[in-house]
Amino acid sequence: MSVVGGCALNHYAPRGNTKTAEVGLMSGDVTDGTGRPATMADIAAHLGVSRQLVSLVLRNAPGASEETRRRVRQAAKDLGFSPHVGAQSLRRTRSTDLGVVFTPAHSTESEIIEHIYPAAATHGYDVILSAQTSTRTTNHAVEELLGHRCAGLIIIGSPLDHAGLRAVSRRSPVPVVDVGSGRRNTHYDIVRSAGDNGIDDMVTHLAGLGHRRIAYVDPAAMPAAALRRRGYDRAVTRLGLPADVLTMPGDYTESDYFDEAGSAAARLLLRREALPTAVVAPNDHTAVGMLQILLRDGVRVPEDVSITGFDDAPVARLSSVNLTTVRQDPHLMGVAAVEAAVRRIQDRDHKPGETVVATSLVERGSAAPAR
């Protein structure tokens, strides 16, 4: 993997069909010694062959014997040769890169990317990453990827609303997939988890444990905040429970946003005369931030208050946290995002669609029957 600008690029050498005649190969130790990156010309000069023949072998094109291929590849390895991926991309008649915009501050997005790589490789695509941060917008990241001539764009967790994403898709010459919380539209594909159903299931689970005072922490800057909040509102209305929502504003791209939202919510609860018997957070880091503040104040979890999260992020699985949560499968999310992009790359007349990935309840030790 190499890094260009703000992007991490992963490429493989493309195949070609150029033919050329072989010439004799010289034997001997392979060294460069100049301190500069080795080139195909260096390999050719050392072995006494043409640069065209070296190029043919390194592109895995037909026209060279197995012995020739072995010698060229060994020389390339010994010289430390690395292909110039940018030049390769420019020579292609069709882009084989998928651009992915993500927020590195959030671990769940990295988990989705982990599954995007093999899914893209299955279709013959490489992956280029571009980050959106507190100092770098989604639009900056998109423009960078378009500059690399990506065949499609996958945008994970963008703070842009529908109007903003629609504007991105209109100026993009390639298909756009939003991995987040949007709804089916005619401009870009949607891949999302059933976040409203997941939160509804969690509230229903807690009610089944006897909880009647179930609070909800709403990190309003989270792209999926409105969707997950709908699940809470729907569940408490159906179950006849009082709504208790703590809204936490902030900057989604900040690395500590979710943890601090949970901490702030816990401090608000501690000022009350009585705590709720359970608190639902639509993000695991928000739940952990709350857990730390409550425990520090002597509140027992789950004996005094049950706390639950959403995502099943790595932090939720730690034995020291052991968080009851809602899982959205990052494998299914990553595969669905690639499938949506490739489908429209291969058929530009295909209409944008919506893929909803089911969630599941993960019971651990942070929730217990109400007392």
Could you describe the 3D structure shown?
This protein is of the alpha/beta class and 371 residues long. Among the domains are: 2-89, lambda repressor-like DNA-binding domains (434 Repressor (Amino-terminal Domain)), CATH 1.10.260.40; 195-329, 3-Layer(aba) Sandwich (Rossmann fold), CATH 3.40.50. It has 13 helices and 14 strands. The strands form three sheets. Strands 1-2-4-3-5-6-7-13 form an eight-stranded mixed sheet, sandwiched between helices. The chain has a four-stranded parallel sheet with strand order 9-8-10-11, sandwiched between helices. A hairpin with a 2-residue loop joins strand 1 (2-4) and strand 2 (7-10). Helix 1 (40-47) packs across helix 2 (51-58), helix 8 (195-208) runs parallel beside helix 9 and helix 10 packs across helix 11 (284-296). The radius of gyration is 26 Å and the shape is elongated. The model is unreliable at 1-32 (pLDDT under 50).
